Amino acid sequence: MRRGKVLIVEDSAATRDYYKEYLQRRGFAVDEAYNGLEALEKFAVGRYDAAIVDINMPKMDGYQFIRELRGGERSYTIPIAVVSSESKPSDQQLAYQAGANAYLVKPVKPDRLEALIRLFGIEPEGASV
C-alpha cells in the first residue's frame, strides 16, 4: 500500500469540495484543479499518487489531460479514475484509450471513490501499513 496524495480535477467547485472534504475526513491528502490545464501545472510542481478526473471541463477536457499525463515528458503511470456525467460506452472507451484506469458515471458517492482509491493501493496518510 502507498500513502499518497489524490488530485481532484473537476470544474464544479461544489463537486470538488464534496469529494475533497469527504476524502480529507477519511485521512487522505487531497489537492484540486479546475481543469486539465491547471492539473498539468500542479503535476509539474507537485507529486500525486492518483487522480479523479471529470471529462467536460473548460480549457482542457479530461481526455486531453489524461493523454498529456500519460504521454508527456515524464509519462505518469499513476492510477486515474474518470468520474463523468457522460454515460455512453463510447465515452468510456475514449477514456480508457486515453489511459484511464477506471470510469464511474455521476452521481458518484464519495465512499465509492474512497473504495476505488484504496483498490488502487493508496491508503490515508495516517494509516499503518
Write structural notes for this entry.
The protein has helices at residues 13-25, 36-45, 62-71, 89-98, 110-119, and strands spanning 2-3, 5-9, 29-33, 50-53, 80-84, 102-105, 122-123. It is built from five helices and seven strands, in the order ββαβαβαβαβαβ. It is globular, with a radius of gyration of 13 Å. The chain has a five-stranded parallel beta sheet with strand order 3-2-4-5-6, with helices on both faces. A two-stranded parallel ribbon has the order 1-7. It is α/β, with parallel strands linked by helices and 129 residues long. The chain has a single domain (2-123), classed as Response regulator (Rossmann fold, 3-Layer(aba) Sandwich), CATH 3.40.50.2300. α1 (13-25) packs across α5 (110-119) and α2 (36-45) runs parallel beside α3 (62-71). The mean pLDDT is 91. The longest helix is centred in the N-terminal third of the chain and has 13 residues, at 13-25.
